[in-house]
Amino acid sequence: MPDLFDFFKENEDKLHERPPEKVWQKLEQKLERTRRPRRRGIRFLQTWVVALILLILLMAAIAVWHYSRR
Fold this sequence. Notes:
By secondary structure, this protein is mainly α. It has one domain. 77% of the residues lie in helices and 0% in strands. The longest helix has 29 residues, at 41-69. It is elongated.
């Protein structure tokens, strides 16, 4: 079985190959098409989720306090 070091030594010239410029342009175009637009509402949504959780916890605390007084 050949050594891994020998494999890299034999194929060193292939490590420095550069693809043609058209390949890079095509790849960049494909990446631009598949990128999703950034959502603006995510931070706003997260704030409302946190506020809703706090409200639910507050209501639960009030309910526990109210029923424990009985």
